[in-house]
Amino acid sequence: MTDGDPQAFASAPDTEATSRGESFPVPDTEATSRGTGAPVPDTEATSPGKGFPVPDTEAAAPQGKAFDLARLLAERGGERYELHTKYLNHQLPRMLHTIGFDKVYERAEGAYFWDSEGNDYLDMLAGFGVMGLGRHHPVVRKALHDVLDASLADLTRFDCQPLPGLLAEKLLAHSPHLDRVFFGNSGTEAVETALKFARYATGRPRVLYCSHAFHGLTTGSLSVNGESGFRDGFAPLLPDTAVPLGDLAALERELKRGDVAALIVEPIQGKGVHAAPPGYLLAAQELLHRHKALLIADEVQTGLGRTGDFYAYQHEAGVEPDLVCVAKALSGGYVPVGATLGKEWIFKKVYSSMDRVLVHSASFGSNAQAMAAGLAVLSVMEQEGIVENARVTGDLLRTRLAALTDRYELLSDVRGRGLMIGIEFGRPSSLKLRSRWTMLQAARKGLFAQMVVVPLLQKHRILTQVSGDHLEVIKLIPPLTVTEREVDRFVEAFTAVMDDAHAGGGLMWDFGRTLVKQAVANR
After folding, report:
1. Contact 183, 392 (CB under 8 A)
2. Does residue 236 have a cis bond before it (omega within 30 degrees)?
3. How far is the CA of 520 from the CAs of 2, 264, 426, 441, 515, in angstroms?
């Protein structure tokens, strides 16, 4: 094992077995279709005259013309940035080139990436929280091999497959005050579902949301997005209203108007990593119910163990949201999935008759691959103590980082819960550093945080993110499988970067001047 190999698995990945000389894993179909618990289709029983005809794949795919993913990646993989520039969002590769994030990662396992030269990179971003179990967890991989090998009659639209019911049962076991689940394909779709259900169940049009909230980017979710940068240019949106997080008086003023269906809230906001004040969620719930409105908890990023409890709202006793949105980590990092959990009466009101059976649905919702991934994820969480690890490891990381606030004048705060941690930078006291800080702030707020993120990747091979536009906050949301070893590596690297920043010279501040020029040029 190399020095940076992940600790979440028993051994380093067998590159010969998993890549066959290529840059991605090739499933061993023989190993994953026999003895794994998934039925292998009996081709004799399903051959012509005995059921459904089995296609002759050799005849259907002429020699030399069959689709070969390994060959395609080998031949064209090196064009990744050019292809993206030409056919997709052209600003993404431009941004990555500018800040030096234009890496070429060859493979990944657990909390690590590797490049073509064998260098390891510690992932403290987890795909914006999607990779809760890290990348390519063997249990989730096996579940997906199994479900593909089973050749299930999936998405017939007019039957009831077992996997959605089993996953709903498993999710609801962690949510004892909730009764039913709707499965969609993403976090924003889970939020859209909650908004629709809340409006229909209450008969009211308006949903309240918190300033600086992020709930997704489709039109309904965007209507409850608290960041103007995402909303600008997309009006008209739905008639929803922002209230400050923690401001009960503002909430009550809006409720008294009598047209509020619900308040949607992240127990810990992803933008800036701000937790709801102690007691706020419970008091808000009581106010909402008194005015016959609902509480929606957006747990798309905070749910499934991220904050050291299964849901972040569970940190406050007595909080029982009427609707809960989850996604991201439920996917196992493989198959997009979102879920909206709710109370019995809400679902029965939305689906009030057979005429309304498809009043809200999703074409790919409840597909077998997503359901299998979700079931495998929840099994791993229970068997491997993932929630407890997030709590213990998160406390260790946050405590060690918080201890540095007295050492570095540029470091103003460390906050969060579990493995969702915000590191905030602020105005220094010394004249030399203060003048440089002022220069950055005048050009664009958030540049200093970017100055920290870049050397963490380029010098220390650690991937992090700035927590939001115009924020001097770095957010850490690593895979929930990280251990003390990853904590040591991050704290050591962060300390080195902060030492360099406080030395007042060198490449870090040279890069800062480059960012200033770029920010001014983009005005």
Report:
1. no
2. yes
3. 43, 37, 21, 11, 9
Dist CA 202 CA 199 (whole Å): 5
Percent of the chain exceeding pLDDT 70 equals 84
Three-state SS for 410? Answer: coil
d(CA 299, CA 265): 9
Which amino acid is present at 65?
K
Residue range 330-348, pLDDT digits in tens:
999 999 999 999 999 999 9
> Across 153-259, where does the E strand assignment appear?
180-184, 206-210, 241-243
Q: Tell me phi and psi for residue 487, to 5 degrees.
A: -60, -45
Report the candidate in 118, 112, 26 with the shortest Cα–Cα distance to residue 74. Answer: 26
Give which of 28, 254, 310, 258 is closest to 145, Cα–Cα: 28
Is residue 24 scored above 80 in pLDDT? no
Q: What is the CA radius of gyration of the chain?
A: 25
SS3 522: coil
Q: Cα(465)–Cα(190) distance, rounded to whole angstroms?
A: 24
Q: What is the side-by-side strand order in the sheet with 411-417?
A: 411-417, 420-425, 473-476, 465-466
Closest of 136, 105, 150 to residue 8, by C-alpha: 136
Beta strands, E only, 426-466: 462-463, 465-466
The answer on pLDDT for 268 being more than 70 is yes
Whether 246 shows a pLDDT value over 90: the answer reads: yes
Tokens 């060959």 locate to: 71
- In three-state form (DSSP H/G/I as H, E/B as E, the rest C), the secondary structure along 469-482 is CCCCEEEECCCCCC
Spatial separation of the C-alpha atoms in residues 452 and 512, rounded to whole Å: 10
- Judged against a pLDDT cut of 70, whether residue 193 lies above it is answered with yes
Burial of 173 (0-12, 13-18, 19+ CB in 10 A): exposed
pLDDT at 261 over 50: yes
- Predicted pLDDT at 37: 38
How confident is the model over 231-244, as pLDDT tens digits?
A: 888 888 887 889 99
Which of left, alpha, beta for 136 (phi over 0: left; psi -120 to 50: alpha)?
left
Which pairs count as long-range contacts for 503-507, CB under 8 Å and 24+ apart, including other chains? 504/432, 504/433, 504/436, 507/455
Q: Which residue has the higher pLDDT, 19 or 260?
A: 260
Which contiguous run of DSSP H or E holds residue 255? helix 248-255
What's the pLDDT band for 444 if we cut at 50, 70, 90? confident
Instruction: Name the token pair of 319.
Output: 């909080």
pLDDT (0 to 100) of residue 523 = 62
Q: How confident is the model at residue 356 (pLDDT cuts 50, 70, 90)?
A: very high
Largest CA distance in the chain: 87
Torsion of Cα atoms, 45 then 51 then 57 then 58, to 10°: 70
Distances (CA, A) of 483 to 41, 104, 139, 239: 41, 26, 19, 45
